[in-house]
Amino acid sequence: MAWNLSWLKGLVLGLLLLPAPLPAQAPPVRDAAELQMLLDRLQVVGSVLYLAAHPDDENNAVLAYFSKGRHLDTCYLSLNRGGGGQNRIGSEQGDVLAALRTQELLAARRLDGAEQLFTRAVDFGYSKTPQETLAIWGHDAILADVVWTIRKLRPDVIVTRFSPTRGGTHGHHTASAILALEAFRAAADPARFPEQLARVRPWQATRLVWNSYRLRNELHAMAPGSYLSVEVGAYDPLLGMSYPELGALSRSQHRSQAFGTLAQRGSKTELFEPLAGPPAKADLFEGIDLSWKRIAGGERVAPLLAQALRDYRPERPAGVLPLLLKAKAALDGLPAEPRVLDKRAQLLEAIRCAAGIWVEAVADRQSVAAGDPLEVTATVIARGEGRAALKGYDLVPALARGGAGGPLPLNEPVKATFQVAFPAGTPCGQPYWMGEGASPGLHPGGPPELAGLPENPPALAVTFHLEALGVPFDLTAPVRFRLGDQVLGERWQPLTVTPPVLVDFDQPVQVLAEDGARQVSLVAVAGKRAVAGRLRLQASEGWRVEPAELPFALARPGDEARFTALLTPPRAAGAGSLTVTAETGGAGEPARSVVRIDYPHIPLQTLFPPARVKLVRLDLQRGGRRIGYVAGAADEIPAMLRPLGYRVDLLSDGELAAGDLSGYDAIVVGIRAFNIRPALALLNPRLLDYVAGGGTEIVLYSNDQGLVLPAVGPYPFRISSHRITDPTAAMVPLVPDHPLLNRPNRITAADFQGWVQERGTYFAEDWDPRYVPVFSVRDPGEEPSSGGLIVAAHGKGHFVYTGLSFFRQLPAGVPGAYRLFANLLALRTP
Ligand SMILES: [Zn+2]
């Protein structure tokens, strides 16, 4: 499917430059104080770019201070979207988690009023050095993206969250500051990335500073004047709070990172240290003209906007409408450079608010396939004294003829209904940045119009052509679906274009350890009316899938057809994939599945990743079949073990307290269970009794912070935050004849190939001598660590603590991880 760039271009210019609240979730509702802040913002012509690596790196108090306190056009550039972290509210991982975090950043920006942009960098997990980070991302690719952002936004000041030289933090962090420093100069140099100059011009920001954090004694040792201390804790009566308070609300949107934050009230200073450009002595923006004088022709706009601010009365905002409309006419006459475009969008929103105009475009369903009918109702209400008139409507893209205008009686909704259908070939709503990029460190860049944007533009929008006091202006509303949720009330969801048929498998990874065929289940769900055709299944060489063709005919969107197919693995161990082509008339297309991300703090996200199953043929021996499982956080391991013939019982607190555990060959305690299951503080002795009676307890990593009990094992050891981030780091056996390395599977170096993201986290340290470490492993340039897997005999059984990331490797279908895990489960069996 190709992107239809001509209509994207219209949307990008018409919509995406509007202030942050418009493209997502509900239409913006602004009170009189917010309109005054918009008028304040219109007086200031200047911008600041805050730059760091991840969702959550941004200093929310500082963003709120720049945006609401200094009225600057403020942007947070997060190099990546945070798909490599842990999810504290659900099971989303990888790209899906990145989509959730993208929306959490946008939710934060809706509060602090800043804009949000990204580069193509993938969050590939923890990195210990910036060198490793830049090698995986591709230094030049991400530098180009940062340069692009600077040239596009033309910020006066660039602020990093991290130091380009001081280590001791995530490699992504240091890399973000290194790139900021390089891009500060490269953005101004027309010889660097000249291919960008067709769309943007070189730009030299005035200064680059590091928003630093220093201990008190460190600060005392610094030369006077080597840093700038800025008070950001002022109370803002328009907000009814201080900037750090607003920052806490904004930070608390990072729910998937459990960053709910207490507000801090009272004075608060932030430090800024110069990295490039003339150091600031008294103010970060000193020496920079932040007035309309910096724009040719701006002297015609500035007095009108200044007068509007002086005349503004919150109880009668329409009083400033004539001035704002005059300013609009003046601003329309200025050249369309980036700052002017930003100001035009802000002024339009101020006009909308001052005139009390509400516009909305509501679809009769949340998702629709190309070709199916969709009804869109466009509503405009003039709720203020603006005396606006409607000149007409247009759809963007123009899927239907526009509507005629008419008068807008005070507070009377004026509606128009459009019957539309998306043409064949319209791309589905899969985010442009998702999927396989040019390298494993890069997300796809999408079409140049979208480069760096957080999300796709709306699939469809309505432009309302309005006029007041003889001045025409356009307001654009994305088409949304409006839902009355009995618990949450009014919810607005983006309209999604769905593929004609969606295909979901019961398992995204099939791991087979035996020769016989296995039944796989899949479901085809109609995305549109009267869809018929066939699914063609294709398995990698050596694998057989029968039947390979599955005909279907579905009447209504949402109707389902369920299928089973028999999958026969090859004899030899190896990996492959099962893919699906959907043929629904015309050429077949790779089938897509559907993933929904639905939380109250973000708009509904609908993703359409390719429908495919990873296939793994294992050479696996099992000993021990009956497994008890103490589930931890978002743990997929039980679902991966069951198809291999293990009987896995999830153990409730009640079963742990009173059940008979002695029949289990092994009991696994899932990731972070000792952080999130408070009852384990009392129940742990039951687990250790089970071990003493001959059982095997395998504890997967818990976080060293916030354990529910002081010690999890029969003998002391400490859980550290040490991790091995190189997934190829050599695993050196320390006890070659240890049963874990030999029974029933002989573990060799080959078993540590193909691990994903890392070796492990939260390794054990300072263990009692009764524990035996099994492997030694080290990251490049570090000392070896042997706390990744430790075993102790206790009574007649065994206790194991492991930081190795089985929770990641098993769902990813990594063969060696299965073989080693099978050996852990088999410790009890003779
Ligand atoms: Zn970070």
Explain what the structure shows.
The chain is α/β, with parallel strands linked by helices and 830 residues long. 23% of the residues lie in helices and 27% in strands. The chain contains 19 helices and 42 strands. Strands 10, 12, 13, 14, 15, 16, 17 and 18 form an 8-stranded mixed beta sheet that branches. Helix 2 runs antiparallel to helix 12. The protein is globular. It binds zinc ion (ZN). Residues 53-54, 57, 170, 173 line the site of zinc ion (ZN). Zinc ion (ZN) is lined by residues 53-54, 57, 170, 173.
Keywords:
eight-stranded mixed beta sheet; seven-stranded mixed beta sheet; disordered N terminus; alpha/beta; 42 strands; 830 residues; binds zinc ion; 23% helix; 19 helices
